[in-house]
Please model this.
Amino acid sequence: MITKLSKQKERVETGIAQFGNDWPCVIIRGDNAFAYAVALSQAIKRLETIVNKTKIEDYVLIGQLENLKSLLEECYIK
Model:
């Protein structure tokens, strides 16, 4: 789901942003997000070849990385 905000006067770049008094957040522009997703995909493949597949911690780590990769891939507009 995409949260649409009103248009900004200046282009918002990848980095830290804060809206009002809310917690700071990380903005990752779509082009950067897709590149990070590709890098994460490669890192996950390498990690899967070296982790101890019997340890639950490894499954959790790989699962978290997969979720982050999927989130970043959602920024790619086809």
